[in-house]
Design brief:
The structure is a homodimer of 392-residue chains. Chain A has 392 residues and is α/β, with parallel strands linked by helices. Chain A has two domains: 170 residues, 3-Layer(aba) Sandwich (Rossmann fold), CATH 3.40.50; 206 residues, Dehydroquinate synthase-like, alpha domain (Up-down Bundle), CATH 1.20.1090. Helix content of chain A is 48%, strand content 11%. In chain A, strands 2-9-6-5-3-4 form a six-stranded parallel sheet, with helices on both faces. In chain A, strands 7-8 form a two-stranded antiparallel sheet. In chain A, helix 10 packs across helix 11, helix 11 packs antiparallel against helix 13 and helix 11 packs across helix 16. The mean pLDDT of chain A is 97. At the A-B interface, strand 1, strand 2, helix 8 and helix 9 of A face strand 1, strand 2, helix 8 and helix 9 of B.
Chain lengths: 392, 392
Amino acid sequence: MKNFSYHIPTRFVFGRGVEAEAGPQVRELGATKALIVYGGGSAVRSGLIGRVEASLDGAGVAHVALGGVKPNPRDVLVYEGIELVRREGVDCILAVGGGSVIDTGKAIAHGSCYDGDFWDFFCGKAKPERTLPVGAVLTMAAAGSESSNSCVITQEATKTKRGLRTELNRPRFALLNPELPMTLPPYQIACGATDILAHIMERYFTGEADVDLTDRLCEGAMLAVIRAARVAVKDPHDYDAQCQLMWGSTIAHNDTLAVGRTQDWGSHQIEHELSALYDVPHGAGLAVVFPAWMRYHMEKNVMRFAQFAVRVYGCGMDFEHPEKTALRGIEAHEAFLRDIGMPVTLRELGARPEDIPALAAHTKKTNPDGTTGGVFPMTPADIEAILRLADR
Amino acid sequence: MKNFSYHIPTRFVFGRGVEAEAGPQVRELGATKALIVYGGGSAVRSGLIGRVEASLDGAGVAHVALGGVKPNPRDVLVYEGIELVRREGVDCILAVGGGSVIDTGKAIAHGSCYDGDFWDFFCGKAKPERTLPVGAVLTMAAAGSESSNSCVITQEATKTKRGLRTELNRPRFALLNPELPMTLPPYQIACGATDILAHIMERYFTGEADVDLTDRLCEGAMLAVIRAARVAVKDPHDYDAQCQLMWGSTIAHNDTLAVGRTQDWGSHQIEHELSALYDVPHGAGLAVVFPAWMRYHMEKNVMRFAQFAVRVYGCGMDFEHPEKTALRGIEAHEAFLRDIGMPVTLRELGARPEDIPALAAHTKKTNPDGTTGGVFPMTPADIEAILRLADR
């Protein structure tokens, strides 16, 4: 187990109707005026924004609102939010939505405390040193942004999607009402579950061998999320399944399951290119990239992929040919993704094979030597080969 | 899944030599004078206290020390600590030890901010409203006090051992060096592992059926702790095994694994009577009580005990007679406890059968109707029957 430092400042309140806690929680932070960030009109029409505003009013917290966040959130709205914060004297961000909304809120929070261009943080030119407190009312189990240290924004003009990791990204509170995602289309619930699993898998396919406890936690969470996803996609009103997905999304991406181990994140970098170029849901892109990434890297650590197959998908271990077991695990994962309605090829995603070289070349280099991925470093040629595997 | 609120304020630093972080962490809290609480002379002789003091000195934090905490920590030393805090103007407690030391530190912290007798908090006469910040340098993987909301103290004169649960109990930081427990005798390592497992099991044997995610997390952690315990008891210098145990002790008792579900804690209440009366290690007492508790309650939820048997101890499921599977799980757990050198009967523990009625009568009543235990409420007669099962 590697050394680690770990601290989750986020306060979680979980259950039906917990959006009514928004006002008291903002007060608890000592804030007096909140910027409510949200996405489409459905949050207004459903009455959710109204309930949140009523809670703020009840707690004596002033508020202004900024709607219009889209999936794969853009820099344009972040700039608008920063201006609004400054003009209105806002001292707290309240994000009401899923990962895109929360990430927009985080970027506004950082940018409001910075004299330069907030994109500096995302292109590596500067590091945020201060931020405004962010709270979240989660409406979708997926990105884990409600307590993660990450934030992903797309620069619209250049179609560049980039992530920022900093402890300043962690929200101060997260209100988790498992009833809110019940009105989502099954496709979006499936995208969310795929994203949750991908967050665990980026941590699971590590290079270390001495990580039994965190392996077991990752496996346990994957088992529960896979089971709940099958249920929730068929019946979005199953409260129990929505509970597992919502708490699963939270712990999948705040390192509860995976302290002290090397993580990869190469698949995420490749996927960012897909969703930036084609504007597809992040989860759908991950459904296409991850199985191809697994097939490509499997041979470098056959036993780990076999362990995944046996412990997560219940495959029988082939002790003579562990690589067969490993492959069966990847096939089982792909079958699961198909079952819940996800695309698993580039074509099904609507991507164009002729874009592959450019996608590979544009993928963010995360290592000093210009490769991508913490466990299995990849050159652009590797990434191209992975995307070709996904082009079936 | 039940509604919950959840917040762990503790900052964790994990790895070799992290006791050197004590000074900077105390500074970070804004404190200027620490009371170092510790146990026996071994912490001094090993150089640990010296390293901690050097770290405080380096950070410009003044300090006084209070040694002599014993297992099953007594009120007497708490009173002494409170007096020392007041006399010396201490504004932070730094506990260097295992659960007994950390619990003593917590009780001193609460008592120092209270005009009355600190025991008021433990006998239910008052609730703590303020406390001093507590930091921990953990030397033993067991009680989980390094981030739990609980604290257990024994009133020496009456041999009354009582726990206090409050969010004020959570330490502000925990420095976790897995090398520190390497010098412990295997028996103490085994007691610690038993305590860790018991903390998970108190949460695992719940009444709810809709808790798949937290079930899986509990099972995963138990698998890893059982494996690591077998290794560490044979070879205390196995760093990897000590890592799993140390992080396992932490997450086993801070609800990382078990939010949103009913918990029992009846076995712990029964055990408190044993360790208060005979001054045996808490883990050893739990090794005796838990299997008897399981046998006594098994029939009330056979499938949950069968699930434990199958998923944690790899027992084959007897679909015709699930109660046989459930029983095999209890036997497997008992066999594991014997393997690591734990007692599993009252006699092996050194307890006297003739004390059983008094032990049962004195066990803390945790429910308004005078019974004990959140999932399987027990009358004193039930507790007596359980202790008789342990008298073999």
